[in-house]
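FAQ: What does the model actually see?

It sees only this:
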Amino acid sequence: MAKTVLIVDDHASFRRAVRLVLEYAGYDVVGEAADGTAALEAADDLHPELVLLDVHMPGIDGFEVASRLTTKDDAPAVVLTSSRDGTDFDQRVKRSGARGFIPKAEISGQRLADLLR
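And it is asked to produce this:
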């Protein structure tokens, strides 16, 4: 199971909250990024095993970031998230190379572990 995590979201309050949830569940949050460009740079620098990635961000959106990350040789697992339920973009999640989608209100260590099995 992936243990090192990069959290990518344009809202600092969400990043702080999910960091606490994941650290409590035993994950090691190795970094945070506020937009797609910063996410790609952080992933290259930090080599996380998992990237928790917001779908809607300024600049490069989460689907494009996921596509770029998952085509690399040492690709991290990517899980997309949004405040929306995700049914609007099921096909885009699948095409992005992400392992899956979790609504922001439902993020937990267990939900991530279930997607990464």
